[in-house]
Amino acid sequence: MTEAIKIRIGGTNIYLLQSEFNFYVMIDTPISTGKNKLLQKLSHYGISPSQIKLIIITHSHTDHTGSLAFLKELTGAKVIAQQKAAAYIEMGRSAQPVLTNQFLNKLADKYLSRHPEFNKFEPVKTDIIFNEEYELSEWGIKGKIISTPGHSKGSSTIILEEDVSFVGDALFNISPFTITPPIIEDKAELHKSWQKMIKSSSQYFYPGHGPRISRQRFLKAIKKASK
Questions:
Q1: What is the model's pTM?
Q2: Partner of 59 at 20 to 30 A CA spacing, among 9, 46, 158, 185?
Q3: Cα(23)–Cα(102) distance, rounded to whole angstroms?
């Protein structure tokens, strides 16, 4: 079974999967100010940065990409992302977030107009770009990455054969009342992506924010969204 380590920095979850080839695959990176804490956490687990050979970016928002340039240079790892996310990563910016609450949207627009640097990070060359799916077997991981847009353009989910998925921000678990992300670029696309995700045999879904989500809770959210 693939070993998974969860590291939480600044409210964002970073995951490390141990490959069959005795190296690690990292899912997402912390914000730019979180890189030193990440290195401390890696040391705590006895992991050298050089053991990280692949970095999967689930989407291009800065809380998941802020340390990417630093970590790519430090580790020498390859970076993989969905085609639309890769375009943003190579420009060094995020798509402007679209919040589900219109009042918060106006506040966000006002804030971003005053602080345009919020959506920016150091540009990074994406080594591996995929469109719909990418098999991870060549990296010693039994699973695949699939395209799951909706939260943002280019969002993706990692589905392992061991009945777990890592979903980025396609699901949020910071509230006891909902697992719908507060940022949704396209609600119809998100619900289509949920259908793709639930077709897997995954019993647990690990989000970019908050603890894991059970299949039962996910099914309830899908049923509610379909009404």
A1: 0.92
A2: 46
A3: 44
User: Any idea where the domains of the chain sit in the sequence?
Assistant: 4-161
**Alpha carbons 96 and 104: distance in angstroms, whole number:** 13
3-state helix, strand, coil in the chain (%, to 5): 35, 25, 40
**What tens digit of pLDDT does each residue of 69-125 get?**
999 999 999 999 999 999 999 999 887 666 566 655 565 555 445 555 557 899 999
The DSSP bridge partners found for residue 8 are: 13
Residue 192 has φ and ψ, to the nearest 5°, of -65, -40
4-161: which CATH architecture? 4-Layer Sandwich (3.60)
Sign of the C-alpha dihedral computed for residues 145, 54, 15 and 1 taken in this order: positive
Pairwise CA distance, residues 34 & 32, whole Å: 5
Residue 47 and residue 40: Cα distance in Å, rounded? 10
Contacts of 42 by beta carbon, 8 Å cutoff, 6+ apart: 48, 49
Whole-angstrom Cα distance, residue 169 to residue 184? 9
Q: How far apart are CA 24 and CA 218, in angstroms?
A: 28
